[in-house]
Structures are given as C-alpha cells and as structure tokens.
C-alpha cells in the first residue's frame, strides 16, 4: 500500500477507535453492560489496527508517524489499557457499571479524539507544547466527566492544578518564536540547539560586510554577437475577450492575456521596463525557472519593492540558456497570476517548422490556452517539425494527451532530456508552473490533437482538409513516469555526493502562527511564512533538499534562482534521463530528494507553487550568507 | 454564572449561523481563491471552538446537568469531524488533485455535519435559556 493510502487508513482507524471507545463509555453510562462490553471489543480491535497502520506507515519515514508515535499512541495505550483493566472484569459481571468504568472508557475515547485532533489540527511535528496541550485537554475532559458521573465529592485539587498548568504551559509554548534560520549542517544539532545554534552562525556572518541583494543585477550589455531585446510591459486592469466571445475581467500586461511574449536568443540581453497603470496591490515580474541574478528576481519585500500604480522598474538579464519559461507577477501572486498577470519567456534560437507556445490557464472555470477557450486549429504540411510548448500557469496540475502521432517529450522545465524515447497513448502530468516541450514530425494522413485533462480539446493540427480527427478516449491512458523516461547519463551530483547543507521540508496543514497571527495554515516543519526558519547556504555549497508531503494536497515545489537535480522519489533514483527541474509535484505521501550547487548568490523564495498554499503559509527563504536585504521581507507572495 | 453560560451559548449559536452565511459567501466568490473561504475557515477553526470551550467551562462551573455539559463541547468535536470529512474526501481526489464523484460524495457530508452543529448549538442555547428562566442565578453563590 502507498503511504497516501496508509495515511487515509490511519485517519479511518482513528475515527473508528475514537467512536468505539466513546460509544462503549456511553453504553456503560446508560447501564447497558453487555452492549458496552461488545463495543469495547471493537474499540480494542480498532486501537490495535491503528497501531498496525502506524507501524506500516513508519516505513515511509519518521515524518509520517512522528506525532502519532510520540503523542497519540502513548495516550491511547495508557488510557486504553487502563479502561480495559478497569472495565472488562466489571462489565463481564453484567452488573450496573460503576462510575469508574464509565470514566475509564470515556477517557480512552477522549485520548483517541485528542490524538486525531493533533494529526488533523496541529499536524507535524508534535512538540512539547502540543503534547502538553493535548494531554491536558484529555485529562481535563476526564476530570470533568468524573465530576459529572460520580457526582459532587472531594475535588481532586492536585490533579486539576496539574492539568491546568500543563494546559497553560502547552498553549504558551506555541507562542515561543521558532528559530529564525536553519544552517542545514547537522539536523539533530540544529533541532536540539534551536535558536542559539543558528544565532551563533548569524553573528559570525554579520561581522563580514554584508552585500545587499539589490546589488546583484544583470549586465548592461549583451554577450558578443547578441543584441538588446527591449520590452515595455504595462500592468493594468482590462476586460479581455476570449475566442468564444466570453468576456473576462482580468489583470493584464498591455491589456492582453497572456501578456506579450518575451523572446530572445542565447547571448541577447533582455531588458523589460515594467510599469503599473492601475493594479492597486502592486506588481513585479518574476522569471519562472530562469536563474537570473537575485536583484532581478522580482520578489516584493525581498529583492525589490512592489511596483505601485504610477511607478516602474527595469529588469535586465542575459539570455544565457535556451528553452521554455514564463514570467508572472509575484505580488499577491495567488490573485495576480490567477487574474492574468503572466506571459511566456522563450529563449531560442527558434526551431524550424511549427513552434507553438501554449500557456494553459483557467479563467471563469474555462480551460484557456493562450487567449483561446476553444480549440486552436492550425494547418501544418506533412513532414513539418512541430514543437508544442506546454506551460501550466494554474495552481494545480494539468494532464495532457497527444493523439495522432508518436512524439517525444524533448524538454522539461527548459532543459533538454537525455535520449527521450517515442511516446504514444500516455498522459503527461504537468505540475503547476512547469513546462513540457513536445516534438514530432507532422504526419501526412492524420490530425494531431492535444487534449487537456481528457476533456478539453486544446489544439488540432491538420495536414490538410481531408484528415479526420482521431476519436480516442484518452482518459484510460496511463501517466508517464518522468523518472523512468529517457536514457540515464552521468550527472554532476548523485545521492552519494557529500552535501554541505542538508535541509528537510515537511509539508502539512495545521494551526500555526503566521507572523504572530494564528491561522490554519499550510505549514513547513510546523511553521507558516514568515515564521519558517530561513535556509542558510554559502556560495559553492552542494545543497540537498528533502521534501516530504504528509498533507492531503499536491504541492508543486519551486525554488527560485536554481534548477534542482532529482536525486530520488520515495527512495528510488531516476532510472531515465537526469532530471533538472524548477518545479516538481510532491504528491501526498511522497518524499523527494533534490540537489543543487549554490552558485547564484542572493536571497531566494523556496515555496509551493500552488500560490494559494504559498499565500497561506507554505513559503520560506533560502539565503546566501552575507547577503542582506534593505526591504522589510515580510511578504513575498 | 448561568447567565454567562447562556450568553456564551447564544454567542456560539450566532457564530454557527454566521458560519453558514460565510460558507455561502465563499461559494459565490469569484474568482475562487485563497480568500474565498478565509473568513469561513477563521470562524470555524477559531471562533466557534473557543466559544464552545468557554461555554463548556461556564457550564461546568455553573453545575448544569452533565448531559448538557457534554452537549456544549459537542460542536468542538463535530468541527474535528468537519476537518476529517475534508481530509478523507480529498484522499479520494484523482491524481491531479481534482474531485471525483467519490470524493464529492464524502465532501458533501460537510454540509450535513454542519447542520448537526447548528442543531446542537441551538439545542444548547435553548436549554441554557430554560435553566436561566427556571432558576435565575440559583448557584451563583455556590460557584
């Protein structure tokens, strides 16, 4: 069974466990000893099942079971054994259950509920604070039950006092701020020393003269032989008309959605003057997947201030790598990108034949490719080389299918794959923010059809008027596993490399403080932006990121300024082409290990590219030692 | 103390009514984004649980019947079930994270359980009011 299935099973087992213990207690309270005994049997079985599921889940990694092993199961064990010992002899005598039986059974029920609440509401990791708070809540409920069931008597003052102190201490500990940084050197040491370990490192770094992130800018002139590509983009609100005539109120660059395509050849200097006409919340330009100097990265509050109405900002960077990329605003991006502030960035030389950039976006519930919410029909002479550049500008993955011709997935996130083989009858799952280039030679006798999510026909390429469209049900086609596609080749980094920095990001949902404000957030290591420790690296470091998803949502992980090499998924290395990605989907229950060489000094966002999740906490910074920011740094969404 | 309890029970019921209102606000918000259900989430995850907890403490202190104390904390328990329904429902989403008929069948229970929370908090408020009318502040000195 997959970890995701086990996570679901664990939730179900926890629910049945809680319901059975509580049910047994209620049956005992209503003087039905036989029913209570029968349900108690179910409770014991369910509890043991839950333990079994947790043991199985632990095989996927300690992160998936930490809060269960440390808090939920010990609580359940103590209360469950107590309840069994107290209740079984008395219930088998079928006498009127005594108050002690009722209280013991309900206490086990409260413990089961407490553990479940910890998993659902607090998430990873369980801390001393959360353990104290849950234990105190269970103890408090038990004391109250005793008071109700046994009637007025002498109050157990000491127990009440201890419970109250534990509860207050547990809740209070939640407000202790987390360490401000993680140096990725020694996980156990970092965790044990917390703030002090990181603080000591920062002090040393602080003695060196800091270099502001704003000083890392692009060059003034292109490479020899290159030209300057000047663009001017004005962000403004507009009503755009899709191909069907549907009108959409949008935020646009130059009144168009997507914004004007930015193209260049390797060696050119790209210069983009961004103006803001009337986007009240401000705009920036972030070059998704393009490893520009940090000062050109367009993260408000970190590398620049947001460009407010009437203001402008000039971005300048060298086109040093060809491929398919895109740009988008990074200011309130969860709304801004959704409303249309994005466009394509293509670095050539452009290939011969048909070359289509296809940014896929959802407007008003319609799947829109470019500015079309209807199929794009094009003629292509038989034998013409065709390149389709798929760009997912949404928050969730899209599944593409191409029928009518064999093809190759020749490039992912702008990087060519090694030895990509011919594909047919497969689904291509593209993460939010990711790009796939599909290449093929136009067939003579058939239409080639690109479908999105197995329901929307997006592109129809026809070799002539007589060719028919392939009528195929693509929904049953299996997903291509990128980690097994293409030919293996030596890569500069492998799992056995010696890493200078090693960071683990555990993704979950839970109550967390986001800048002092409590919210039910998308969390990393139990914290929410901007309270997640900043990952510190030095120039030249070899850095490994382990990204663990124990939540129930897909998280497309995106590091700014660096491509990452995939080392493994769920412990298995890729058997196909080396994969250099800037956005990778970490699905529920998955563990990805990726690595990169820290060669682009600056301050960078490291976040979930489901921008709603990023907006609700799932974002952090990766900082090079000695780089400072003159900005407040309080957001970057 | 029973007056405090009745007031807290009333506030809890009002918060649940507001919660339904906010659910509709979120459902009709266009475009759907992170803020669509922000208030619904805030009210449901913070306001109602805290009111349920405070009301339960007030109920225990003012020595109302045990069953009513249990009923007063029940909205908090049912909110855990609300989160659970979303968690289990999303577990049945397809691999793109889109809903499936099965996940929708589970997720729809969120509304049914929400009605249970409404019913329980209304019942709590009614009983708290009845206790207040029957014997205004009977144990104020004792507590």
TrEMBL record, chain A:
Gene3D superfamilies to which the protein is assigned, alphabetical: Cupredoxins - blue copper proteins
Single GO molecular function: oxidoreductase activity
Keyword Lyase: no
Protein name: Copper oxidase
Any Pfam family the entry gives: Cu-oxidase_2
Keywords: Copper, Membrane, Metal-binding, Oxidoreductase, Transmembrane, Transmembrane helix
Key word Metal-binding present: yes
InterPro entries: Cu-oxidase-like_N, Cu-oxidase_C, Cu-oxidase_fam, Cu_oxidase_Cu_BS, Cupredoxin
Domain Plastocyanin-like: 236-350, 530-623
Membrane-crossing segments per the record: 6-29, 36-63, 69-89, 101-122, 128-146, 158-176
From TrEMBL, chain B:
Transmembrane regions: 7-28, 40-61, 68-92, 104-125
Superkingdom assignment: Bacteria
Keyword entries, A-Z: Membrane, Transmembrane, Transmembrane helix
Protein name per the record: Uncharacterized protein
Origin species: Planotetraspora thailandica
């Amino acid at each position: 069974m997959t970890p995701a299935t086990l996570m679901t099973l664990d939730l179900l087992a926890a629910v049945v466990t809680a319901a059975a213990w509580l049910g047994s207690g209620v049956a005992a309270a209503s003087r039905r000893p036989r029913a209570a005994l029968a349900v108690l049997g179910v409770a014991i079985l369910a509890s043991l099942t839950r333990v079994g599921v947790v043991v199985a889940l632990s095989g996927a990694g300690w992160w998936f079971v930490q809060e269960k092993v440390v808090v939920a199961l010990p609580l359940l064990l103590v209360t469950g054994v107590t309840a069994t010992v107290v209740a079984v002899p008395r219930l088998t005598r079928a006498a009127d259950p005594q108050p002690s039986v009722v209280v013991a059974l309900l206490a086990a029920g409260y413990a089961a509920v407490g553990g479940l609440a910890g998993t659902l509401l607090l998430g990873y990791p369980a801390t001393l604070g959360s353990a104290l708070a849950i234990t105190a809540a269970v103890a408090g409920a038990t004391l109250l039950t005793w008071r109700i069931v046994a009637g007025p008597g002498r109050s157990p003052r000491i127990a009440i006092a201890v419970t109250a102190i534990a509860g207050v201490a547990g809740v209070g500990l939640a407000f202790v701020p987390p360490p401000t940084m993680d140096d990725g050197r020694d996980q156990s040491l970092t965790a044990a020393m917390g703030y002090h370990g990181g603080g000591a490192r920062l002090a040393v770094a602080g003695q060196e003269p800091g270099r502001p992130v704003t000083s890392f800018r692009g060059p003034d002139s292109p490479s020899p032989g290159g030209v300057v590509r000047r663009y001017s983009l004005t962000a403004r609100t507009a009503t755009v008309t899709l191909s069907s005539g549907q009108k959409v109120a949008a935020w646009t660059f130059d009144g168009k959605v997507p914004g004007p395509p930015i193209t260049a050849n390797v060696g050119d200097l790209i210069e983009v003057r961004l103006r803001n006409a009337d986007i009240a919340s401000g705009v920036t330009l972030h070059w998704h997947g393009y490893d520009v100097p940090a000062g050109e990265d367009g993260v408000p509050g970190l590398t620049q201030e947001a460009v407010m109405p009437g203001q402008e900002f000039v971005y300048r960077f060298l086109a040093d790598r060809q491929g398919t990329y895109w740009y988008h605003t990074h200011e309130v991006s969860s709304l801004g990108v959704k409303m249309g502030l994005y466009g394509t960035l293509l670095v050539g030389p452009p290939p011969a034949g048909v070359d289509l950039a296809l940014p896929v976006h959802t407007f008003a519930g319609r799947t829109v490719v470019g500015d079309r919410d209807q199929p794009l029909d094009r003629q292509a002479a038989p034998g013409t080389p065709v390149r389709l550049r798929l760009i997912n500008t949404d928050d969730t993955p899209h599944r593409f299918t191409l029928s009518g011709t064999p093809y190759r997935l020749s490039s992912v996130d702008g990087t060519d794959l090694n030895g990509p083989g011919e594909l047919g009858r497969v689904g291509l799952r593209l993460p939010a923010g990711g790009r796939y280039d599909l290449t093929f030679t136009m067939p003579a006798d058939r239409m080639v059809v690109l479908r999105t999510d197995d329901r929307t026909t997006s592109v129809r390429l026809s070799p002539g008027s007589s060719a028919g469209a392939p009528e195929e049900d693509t929904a049953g086609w299996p997903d291509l596993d990128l980690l097994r596609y293409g030919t293996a080749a030596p890569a500069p980094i492998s799992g056995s490399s010696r890493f200078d920095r090693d960071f683990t990001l555990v993704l979950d949902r839970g109550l967390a403080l986001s800048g002092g404000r409590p919210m039910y957030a998308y969390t990393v290591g139990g914290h929410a932006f901007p309270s997640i420790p900043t990952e510190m690296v030095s120039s030249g470091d070899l850095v490994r990121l382990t990204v663990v998803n124990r939540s129930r949502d897909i998280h497309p992980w995106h590091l700014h300024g660096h491509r990452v090499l995939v080392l493994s998924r769920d412990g298995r290395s890729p058997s196909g082409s080396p994969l250099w990605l800037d956005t990778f989907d970490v699905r529920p229950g998955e563990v990805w290990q990726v690595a990169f060489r820290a060669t682009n000094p600056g301050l960078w966002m490291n976040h979930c590219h489901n921008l709603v999740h990023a907006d609700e906490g799932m974002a952090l910074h990766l900082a090079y030692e000695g780089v400072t920011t003159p900005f407040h740094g309080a957001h970057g969404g | 103390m029973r007056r405090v309890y009745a007031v807290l029970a009333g506030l809890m019921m009002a918060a649940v009514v507001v919660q339904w209102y906010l659910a509709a606000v979120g459902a009709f918000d266009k475009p759907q984004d992170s803020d669509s259900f922000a208030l619904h989430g805030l009210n449901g995850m913070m306001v109602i649980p805290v009111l349920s907890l405070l009301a339960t403490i007030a109920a225990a202190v003012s020595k109302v019947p045990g069953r009513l104390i249990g009923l007063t904390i029940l909205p908090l328990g049912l909110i855990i079930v609300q989160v659970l329904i979303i968690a289990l429902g999303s577990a049945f989403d397809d691999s793109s994270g889109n809903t499936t008929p099965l996940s929708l069948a589970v997720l729809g229970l969120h509304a049914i359980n929400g009605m249970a929370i409404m019913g329980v908090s209304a019942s709590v408020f009614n009983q708290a009011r009845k206790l207040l009318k029957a014997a205004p502040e009977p144990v104020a000195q004792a507590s």
